[in-house]
Design goal:
GO terms for molecular function: ATP binding. Residues 4-239 form the ABC transporter domain. InterPro entries: AAA+_ATPase, ABC_SmlMolc_Importer, ABC_transporter-like_ATP-bd, ABC_transporter-like_CS, ABC_transpr_FbpC, Mo/tungstate-bd_C_term_dom, P-loop_NTPase. Keywords: ATP-binding, Cell membrane, Ion transport, Iron, Iron transport, Membrane, Nucleotide-binding, Transport. Belongs to the ABC transporter superfamily. It is a single chain. Helix 2 runs parallel beside helix 4. This protein has two domains: 4-229, 3-Layer(aba) Sandwich (Rossmann fold); 241-342, Nucleic acid-binding proteins (OB fold (Dihydrolipoamide Acetyltransferase, E2P), Beta Barrel), CATH 2.40.50.140. The chain is an alpha+beta fold. The longest helix is centred in the middle third of the chain and has 18 residues, at 171-188. The strands form four sheets. A six-stranded mixed β-sheet has the order 6-7-8-3-9-10, with helices on both faces. The protein is built from nine helices and 18 strands. It has helices at residues 43-51, 97-107, 112-125, 141-153, 171-188, 199-205, 223-228, 232-238, 260-268; strands spanning 4-11, 20-27, 32-36, 58-63, 66-70, 82-85, 159-163, 191-196, 208-213, 216-221, 243-248, 257-259, 276-281, 286-302, 307-313, 318-323, 332-337, 339-342. Bound molecules: adenosine-5'-triphosphate. Adenosine-5'-triphosphate is lined by residues 13, 19, 37, 39-45, 197.
Length: 343
């Protein structure tokens, strides 16, 4: 089936700097891509260009070989076979759940019996068969979101676009809905593009994560790769709870995975002639160990299974760590940095 191809995409609004610049990305059919980045980095603009609500000012969007949009061409949203799920659900308050879900079929002139069948299937996919006759006002936030998903399922879209669909839900419901999204994805087989600024949501849901900053795409890779081998400071800082240490290291060392002897050398015997490198260290790789280097405990919070520590190294750099044993603020501990990743 057809991949979704974004080709050197650019969007400029009036005089401002481009909201999206030179963004190229191919999403294979059936993948679940999370567009992740801080507020204002251009995620929604990319989604709206894919949906057909905004026209690119440069570059192009294709579904397989079919051109959807470029600076001169603009296929309207209803001819793209895509469905968009919004944060606000956008349900009709005067229609029942079944009528809301069936609405796109009515618009397309699908016969009554066939439509009823499809609505039943879609409601069963999101486990809402029992709610078919209710109105949206009589549903919880999570149930409304599921109605919005069912409405998108009935049209059998090639691509489903989701703009922060869980932003209005509480934490418990978010987790439940993440499960629904995963199930929805495997059932529908549709390509899904999911906009979020929540890295844990992106990591939990997506098959691929595309990290954006200031309109640019910085890295696209499966969640495990983004986590273990982030490219650069911004991606490293955005994903996981790592600390980024600045250390001096010989430039010729191409190694990116750094073990404790290398890190200890760099931290203890600061070679002023060597250039600075940014090194990402995850808190779970910081081990309290008497053979390690000294660090002052700036704060210690009990999180349930462990203590979350904010440490400060002798040169003043902050470092996050976890500890199973109680550690008090103001103490000095010794830590071993089991591994680091050079950004
Ligand atoms: N219609 C518009 N007219 C002018 N500027 C716009 C318009 N839409 C978006 N922008 C600007 O483009 C930039 C990117 O906005 P966009 O909504 O794509 O970011 P985002 O990453 O989705 O942010 P958020 O997570 O806050 O929704 C912002 O600087 C925004 O102000």
């Amino acid at each position: 089936m057809a991949p979704l191809i974004l080709n050197s995409l650019e969007k400029r609004f009036a005089s401002a700097a481009p909201a999206v610049r030179d963004l190229s990305l191919t999403v294979q059919q059936g993948r679940f891509l999370a567009l992740l980045g801080p507020s204002g980095c251009g995620k929604t603009t990319v989604l709206r260009m894919i949906a057909g609500f905004e026209q690119p000012t440069d570059g192009s969007i294709l579904l397989g070989e079919r051109l959807l949009a470029d600076a001169a061409t603009m296929l309207p949203p209803e001819r793209r076979n895509m469905a968009m799920v919004f944060q606000s659900y956008a349900l009709w308050p005067h229609m029942t759940v079944a009528e809301n879900v069936g609405y796109p079929l009515t618009v397309r002139g699908v016969g009554k019996d066939r439509a009823r069948q499809k609505v039943r299937e879609a409601l069963s996919a999101v486990r809402l068969e029992a709610y078919a006759d209710r109105r949206p006002a009589a549903l919880s936030g999570g149930q409304r979101q599921r109605v919005a998903l069912a409405r998108c399922l009935v049209t059998e879209p090639d691509v489903v676009l989701l703009d922060e669909p869980l932003a209005n839900l509480d934490r418990h419901l978010r987790q439940e809905m993440e499960e629904t999204f995963r199930e929805f994805h495997s059932r529908s087989g549709a390509t899904m593009i999911y906009v979020t600024h929540d890295q844990s949501e992106a990591m939990a849901l997506a098959t691929d994560v595309a990290v954006m900053s200031e309109g640019r795409l910085l890295q696209v890779a499966p969640p495990e790769v983004i986590y273990a081998r982030p490219e650069g400071r911004i991606v490293g800082g955005l994903v996981g709870q790592g600390s980024i240490l600045s250390v001096r290291m010989p430039a010729e060392e191409a190694v990116r995975h750094l073990d404790w002897p290398r890190l200890r050398d760099a931290l203890l015997h600061c070679n002023v002639a060597a250039p600075r490198s940014d090194v990402l260290v995850r808190p779970q790789d910081v081990i309290l160990d008497g053979s390690g280097i000294a660090a002052a405990v700036m704060s210690s919070f009990f999180e349930g299974e462990r203590y979350a520590l904010r440490l400060q190294l002798a040169d003043g750099q902050p470092l996050r760590a976890f500890s199973r044993q109680a550690v008090r603020e103001g103490e000095t501990v010794r830590v071993v940095l089991q591994s680091g990743w050079r950004l």
